[in-house]
Amino acid sequence: MWVIYIDKPSITCLKFFIGGYLGQLSDLGLTPEGYPMEGFQEWIQEREKTNVTRSWAGILIFSCGSDRNAFYSFFELFEKFIKQKDDSKIQEPEDVVRLRQDFMFPRFDIYDEILKGIRKRPGMFLGTSSITRLDMLLRGYSLARREVGVPPTEPEREFEGFQSWVEDKYGINSGQSWAKIILFYSVDEYEALHKFFELFEEYLHQNKSSEVDGTSGLNREY
């Protein structure tokens, strides 16, 4: 089932997917006290007897020996963590529904931040320059918005055509994501991320040019 969301068994991919998902829910005011991941970081640190400043994913990679092993271990550990949580602290689903009805959407649009913030400070959002991490972050963000019925913003709608544009640009129709295609034609994750920003800017520029040409054509016709 995980392949639908993150393509491969990777704790790093899972971490950024969850980060994008929960980050957006939080920004929408839809993560009440008691949401499933709350306390997991501290629980892992206590279980592994470590005070090292690392994320739960980083701790699992260290203890399990690989990104893949850590991925499978996460689900076993998370199940144990959930069983130990105090059920009385978890709010009923009605609380989430109420928050959804009362909140005015949206406050933060990550697609609008791609060129404004992430390009300038990728480490702040991704930890390191990685196109895969960006892809996972966007997937989690978009899934959260779809699940709560938030309509796509203009920047999000603009991004929807980027996949097919990348496929056309590289002459590829293999069903691979835009991130995988760009990474395939790059030396590493770092170069792929920088290439993404260049391509995305080119994509936006072409879209705007097409809109202008279309408008001009209508004006000439009439």
Structural class: mainly alpha
State the helicity in percent bands: 55-70%
Count of helical regions? 13
- Low-confidence runs: 90-106, 216-222
Describe this structure in words.
It is a single chain. The protein is mainly α. It contains 13 helices and no strands. It is globular. The model is unreliable at 90-106 and 216-222 (pLDDT under 50).
Quick description:
With 222 residues, this protein is mostly helical. Helices cover 68% and strands 0% of the residues.
Write the layout of secondary structure elements.
Blueprint: H1 3-6, H2 11-27, H3 40-47, H4 56-64, H5 67-84, H6 93-102, H7 110-118, H8 122-126, H9 131-147, H10 154-159, H11 162-170, H12 178-184, H13 189-221
Helix pairs in contact: 2-9, 4-5, 12-13
Key features?
222 residues; 13 helices
